[in-house]
UniProtKB/TrEMBL annotation:
NCBIfam families in the record: GGGWT_bact
Domain of life the protein comes from: Eukaryota
SMART domains per the UniProt record, alphabetical: FBG
Gene responsible for this protein: LOC101931597
GO cellular component terms attached to this protein's record: extracellular space
Record's protein name: Uncharacterized protein
Taxonomic lineage from the root: Eukaryota, Metazoa, Chordata, Craniata, Vertebrata
Listed PANTHER family: ANGIOPOIETIN-RELATED PROTEIN 1-LIKE-RELATED, FIBRINOGEN/TENASCIN/ANGIOPOEITIN
Length: 256
């Protein structure tokens, strides 16, 4: 082969490598055999790992899921929010019957009514989000039915020995980010904070934030607080804690 031919062939290979290096292959982390993966999307009991594997034609409602390592859990699957297949892990309303000032063990295993207001449970948040890369959407609604949301492309909760610490990725939404940016005049930050309850204070405040409000990922104390009775707070939107409702939804993230 002549020098000119070898050079032309080398240039062609380099061009193909350049194209390949610029291509981002996005996949949903959990795949069934029919999607070309070897990981089952269902538990041994036959329940899906999360709501993203409920039929997209299904209406929003109650389903049973079973994250890896978890017993079956009854949850609300949101099939109406953009993208469908969201697992609702928290729901609260201003006039809720729940006090939200629950103990560490109660927050660990969850409480409430999935048809109304509830907390999935920190242990199950850990087991759910360790399966794959997950994303999260925090949604609040004010008394005039206006909504705001903050979405983070990565969401996980560490295990109990790590204090069920919160981990969030990059922000997108229709309001200011109050969870991953530091606000010195408010409650500091929430990302990377440990979870605190009235009987297990892990915040960075000199007092106990959870004893005044409810269990949450506090710093000093909060920029956002969704776990409260008669107090749902989102700085810059419901600055007096008068939001009408809140929801936290999670689903597997697209990974590039």
């Amino acid at each position: 082969m002549g020098f000119q031919a070898r050079t032309s062939r080398l240039q062609g290979c380099l061009a193909l490598l350049a194209v390949a290096s610029m291509t981002c292959f996005c996949t949903t982390p959990v795949q069934s055999a029919e999607h070309g993966g070897g990981t089952s999307v269902t538990s041994q009991s036959g329940f899906p790992r999360d709501c993203s594997y409920i039929s997209r034609d299904s209406p929003s409602g109650i389903h049973v899921i079973q994250p890896a390592g978890s017993p079956p859990r009854v949850v609300w699957c949101d099939m109406d929010t953009e993208g469908k297949g969201w697992t609702v892990v928290q729901r609260n309303s201003y006039n809720t019957e729940i006090t939200w000032r629950e103990s560490w063990s109660t927050y660990k295993y969850g409480f409430g009514n999935v048809q109304q207001d509830y907390w999935l449970g920190n242990e199950y948040l850990f087991l759910l989000t360790r399966q794959n890369a997950y994303k999260v959407r925090f949604v609040v609604e004010d008394k005039s039915n206006n909504t705001r949301y903050a979405e983070y492309d990565i969401f996980s909760v560490e295990d109990e020995s790590s204090g069920y610490s919160l981990r969030l990725g990059r922000y997108s939404g229709d309001g200011e980010d109050y969870l991953t940016t530091y606000h010195s005049g408010l409650g500091g930050i929430h990302d990377n904070m440990k979870f605190s309850t009235s009987d297990k204070d892990q915040d960075q405040s000199s007092g106990n934030c959870a004893s005044s409000y409810g269990g949450w990922w506090y710093d000093k104390c909060q920029n956002v607080l969704l776990n409260g009775k008669g107090y749902i707070y989102w700085a810059g939107f419901c600055g007096s804690g008068q939001c009408k409702s809140s929801t936290i939804l999670v689903k597997p993230a697209d990974v590039c």
